[in-house]
């Protein structure tokens, strides 16, 4: 199957990728992350061997960039007026789109976090979550369930 | 599972912006893709009295001009298949040719200075026919037989007509300036009314 023009891909899935990034890294970093993801995708695109399920492929590229951004932000100092008693070391303490739940999701371990975002925001099947995370379908399912279980304990104990 | 958390997740997902990246973010993406050398085919829509034209360019020059009778999807698919799938809408990159086309349609320009990429003109004879046609001056006409001769095959008149019928760059490569021996207009890739319009614009 021939690769569709990249613009067609963007028109079809750009909004879903952007939404995923707004949830995964927050609105302030989503645009930069989106651009990084698209440039990385463009770089790899002509050599892509499998033209099936390009939506899951794009989300996989985006989730790699989200992980990069998340790690970078964890290292970035957060400006505060008063030095807090304890260090602000958790990214979830940066306000996120007025949605405390995304902050909770962002506190999950990396695999669980991305699995939950890909499943609940990007609406991917477990097979596609597995593809995006480079793991087995069982592992994808487990990551989503473990992540949700932990959230459930925190949000609705 | 129908519990509080699922509902919370669904509610949180509903607050996410549905519109996707802003037009400005997409514009910056196209610019950056160009700077990083990962944009192979840029395209834009250009308004004209003949309807909105799809104009595409590579790093070498203008590669495609399409009338609106062709769907955008079909035009992009050919570019993706025959040149590169790294196709993006990038209006800024098409600004120079847009300006020249606007001037041409206002009667203020007689020749185009933008470079041409002949990538879609595959086949030696086809390319020679298009290149001979590209040298016909504003307001002048040649017959199909004359173009065939200039392309090096005086007897290939029919092949010349067929080739011009699939000119990938109408207007820029002025196949409207090629007519039948005896003065009949002959066919045109964008329909005969457009050929008449362009010849009238050029004072014929």
Task: From the alpha carbons, calculate the radius of gyration of chain A and give it in angstroms.
Answer: 16 Å
* Helix segment tally of chain B: 8
The number of distinct β-strands of chain A equals 0
Structural class of chain B: alpha/beta
Calculate the terminal CA-CA distance of chain B, rounded to whole Å. 74 Å
Across the major sheet of chain B, the strand order is: 3-2-1-4
Number of domains of chain B: 2
Identify low-pLDDT runs of chain A: 83-98
At CATH level 2, the architecture of chain A is Up-down Bundle
Task: Summarize this entry quickly.
The complex is a heterodimer of chains A (157) and B (204). Helices cover 68% and strands 0% of the residues of chain A.
Protein described:
The complex is a heterodimer of chains A (157) and B (204). Chain A is mainly α and 157 residues long. Chain A has one domain (6-155): PhyR, sigma-like (SL) domain (Butyryl-CoA Dehydrogenase, subunit A, domain 3). Chain A is 68% helix and 0% strand. Chain A has 7 helices and no strands. Chain A has helices at 6-25, 27-44, 54-75, 100-107, 110-120, 126-133, 137-155. The termini of chain A are far apart. Mean pLDDT of chain A is 84; it is low at 83-98. With 204 residues, chain B is α/β, with parallel strands linked by helices. Chain B folds into 2 domains: 1-120, Methylated DNA-protein cysteine methyltransferase domain (Double Stranded RNA Binding Domain), CATH 3.30.160; 124-201, Arc Repressor Mutant, subunit A. In chain B, strands 3-2-1-4 form a 4-stranded mixed sheet, with helices on both faces. In chain B, helix 6 (144-150) packs across helix 7 (157-165). The mean pLDDT of chain B is 93. The A-B interface holds A 2-8, 10, 14-19, 22-23, 27, 31, 34-35, 38-39, 42-43, 45-46, 97-99, 101-102, 116, 120-121, 148, 151-152, 155-156 and B 3-5, 8-10, 12-13, 15-22, 25-26, 28-29, 32-33, 36, 38-39, 41, 43, 73, 76-77, 79-81, 84-89.
């Amino acid at each position: 199957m021939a690769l569709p023009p990249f613009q067609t891909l963007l028109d079809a899935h750009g909004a879903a990728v952007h939404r995923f990034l707004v949830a995964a890294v927050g609105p302030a970093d989503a645009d930069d992350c989106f651009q990084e993801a698209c440039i990385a995708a463009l770089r790899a695109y002509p050599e892509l061997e499998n033209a099936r399920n390009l939506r899951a492929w794009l989300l996989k590229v985006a989730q790699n960039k989200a992980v990069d951004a998340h790690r970078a932000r964890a290292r970035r100092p957060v400006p505060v007026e008063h030095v807090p008693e304890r260090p602000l070391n958790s990214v979830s303490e940066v306000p996120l789109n007025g949605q405390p739940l995304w902050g909770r999701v962002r506190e999950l371990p990396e695999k669980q976090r991305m699995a939950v975002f890909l499943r609940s925001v990007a609406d991917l099947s477990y097979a596609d979550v597995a593809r995006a995370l480079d793991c087995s379908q069982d592992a994808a399912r487990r990551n989503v369930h473990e992540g949700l279980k932990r959230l459930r304990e925190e949000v609705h104990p | 599972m129908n519990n509080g958390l699922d509902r919370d997740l669904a509610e949180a997902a509903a607050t996410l912006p549905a519109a996707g990246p802003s037009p400005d973010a997409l514009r910056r993406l196209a610019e950056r893709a160009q700077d990083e050398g990962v944009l192979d085919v840029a395209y834009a829509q250009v308004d004209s009295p003949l309807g909105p034209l799809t104009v595409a360019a590579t790093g070498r020059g203008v590669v495609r001009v399409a009338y609106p009778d062709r769907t955008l999807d079909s035009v992009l698919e050919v570019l993706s298949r025959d040149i590169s799938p790294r196709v993006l809408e990038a209006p800024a990159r098409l600004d120079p040719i847009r300006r020249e086309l606007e001037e041409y349609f206002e009667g203020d320009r007689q020749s185009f200075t933008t470079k041409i990429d002949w990538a879609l003109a595959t086949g030696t004879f086809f390319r020679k026919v298009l290149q001979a046609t590209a040298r016909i001056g504003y307001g002048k006409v040649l017959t199909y037989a004359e173009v065939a001769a200039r392309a090096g095959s005086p007897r290939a008149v029919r092949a010349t007509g067929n080739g011009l019928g699939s000119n990938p760059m109408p207007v820029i490569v002025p196949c409207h300036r090629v007519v039948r021996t005896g003065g009949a207009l002959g066919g045109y890739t964008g329909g005969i009314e457009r050929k008449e319009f362009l010849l009238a614009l050029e004072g014929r």
